[in-house]
Design goal:
By secondary structure, the protein is of the alpha/beta class. It folds into two domains: 4-265, Queuine tRNA-ribosyltransferase-like (TIM Barrel, Alpha-Beta Barrel), CATH 3.20.20.105; 267-370, no CATH class. Helix content is 42%, strand content 18%. The chain has 15 helices and 16 strands. It has helices at residues 45-52, 61-66, 70-75, 79-83, 95-99, 127-137, 155-175, 193-206, 222-233, 250-257, 268-274, 306-310, 313-321, 325-352, 355-366; strands at residues 4-11, 14-21, 24-28, 30-32, 57-59, 89-91, 105-107, 112-115, 122-125, 141-143, 182-187, 211-213, 242-244, 263-265, 277-280, 283-286. The strands form four sheets. Strands 4-14-13-12-11-10-6-5 form an eight-stranded parallel beta sheet. The chain has a three-stranded antiparallel beta sheet with strand order 1-2-3. α1 runs parallel beside α14 (325-352) and α11 packs antiparallel against α14 (325-352). It starts with a strand and ends with a helix. The relative contact order is 0.14.
Length: 370
């Protein structure tokens, strides 16, 4: 297997490391832009690499299975070839998307039978099927198939769900065929520390090359999220990467880096940008607001992204007001650049041994508002 993780430095509980994959190295902590359907919405791959500096992006197993299909992606030479991306890719298992279908799916010990949200057709995801799909897609890092319990949920429900997830993890690991892909186990257990510990220890016995933390950012209070990630920091092995799935705001990222998390992903920077809300080191900026009609400053005067180097708030507001597609592209470039800057700054602070002071400084700045 050509996957390796090297822990380089620690500042408090915050970690800086390097992940080596078949398609290149990833310096952690890292934020991973979400490319659900083999594209990061509104952003050219060239800009992701040359301006934003994305080191790894995500694909969504559920959506890629439905369209265009994993067989077609494999025929194209794998997802890297299909989408023209030569850096690392991570795919999730599709578990969260399937569980989100609510009345359109049925969970059994075998797997999940569900209806497509596109045409209502029936499909079955088992741990073995999900491995088959992800092996065909060919991402560098892939995820175990898990059941993501809703919030709120009773402890009894979460415990039963965890049994299913751990069984699926064993079966998926046995079915995983490609040595050039790193399969991560997913720690579940809701907001219950004893269940999280049971999950983590069982997955560690299976010896995965990395561990994801799932089932957070699903509606629980932020205090629960931070309590669980801090708790797991004392359990998960120090010599393997930790990935907090689907998180989140810039504040969430800083606070969870402080709890020992290495990898993050979220649709928030691009989804919000497409609606005119941008993230900056001075907080959120709603560029569609009337106050920016004659504001010829960049989104963030300290930012070096393509958008801030070339365009004003007034221009972006104009593009949004006339429904130009360029508005969403320029806004997305800025917010992704900021997210990648945030983890780059965090890594530098960890290496310098002053992450906590950096975190407090950034949290204070972002609370001010742009």
């Amino acid at each position: 297997m050509s996957f390796k993780y090297k822990l380089e430095s620690v500042s408090g509980k915050a970690r800086a490391g390097v992940i080596t994959t078949p398609h290149g190295k990833i310096e952690t902590p890292i934020f991973m832009p979400v490319g659900t359907r083999a594209t990061v919405k509104g952003v050219m791959p060239r800009d992701l690499k040359e301006d934003i500096g994305a080191e790894i992006i995500l694909g969504n197993t559920y959506h890629l299975y439905l369209r265009p299909g994993h067989e077609l992606i494999a025929e194209a030479g794998g997802l890297h070839e299909f989408m023209g991306w030569d850096r690392p890719i991570l795919t999730d298992s599709g578990g969260f998307q399937v569980m989100s279908l609510s009345g359109l799916r049925k969970i059994t010990a075998e797997g999940v039978r569900f209806q497509s949200h596109i045409d209502g057709s029936y499909h079955m995801f088992s741990p073995e099927k999900v491995m088959e799909i992800q092996n065909a897609i060919g991402a560098d890092i892939i995820m175990s198939f898990d059941e993501c319990p809703p919030y709120p949920a009773t402890k009894k429900y979460v415990a039963e769900s965890l049994k299913t997830t751990l069984d699926w993890a064993r079966r998926g690991k046995a079915a995983h065929k490609r040595k050039d892909q790193a399969l991560f186990g997913i720690v579940q257990g809701g907001i219950y520390e004893d269940l999280r510990q049971e999950s983590a220890e069982a997955l560690m016995e299976m010896d995965f090359p990395g561990y994801s933390i799932g089932g957070l950012a699903v509606g629980e209070e932020k205090t629960h999220m931070l309590r669980i990630t801090e708790y797991l920091n004392g359990i998960l092995p120090a010599d393997k990467p930790r990935y907090l799935m689907g998180v989140g705001t810039p504040e969430d990222i800083l606070n969870n880096i402080a709890n020992g998390v290495d990898m993050f992903d979220c649709v928030m920077p691009t989804r919000n940008a497409r609606k005119g809300t941008l993230f900056t080191r001075n907080g959120k900026l709603i560029v569609k607001a009337a106050r920016y009609k004659k504001d010829f400053d960049p989104i963030d005067s300290e930012c070096t992204c393509y958008t801030c180097r070339n365009f004003s708030r007034a221009y972006l507001r104009h593009l949004f007001s006339v429904d130009e597609l360029l508005a969403m592209t320029l806004a997305s470039i800025h917010s992704l650049h900021f997210y990648l800057d945030l983890v780059r700054w965090s890594r530098a602070a960890i290496l310098e041994g002053n992450f906590e002071s950096f975190r407090q400084h950034m949290l204070s700045r972002m609370q001010g508002g742009a």
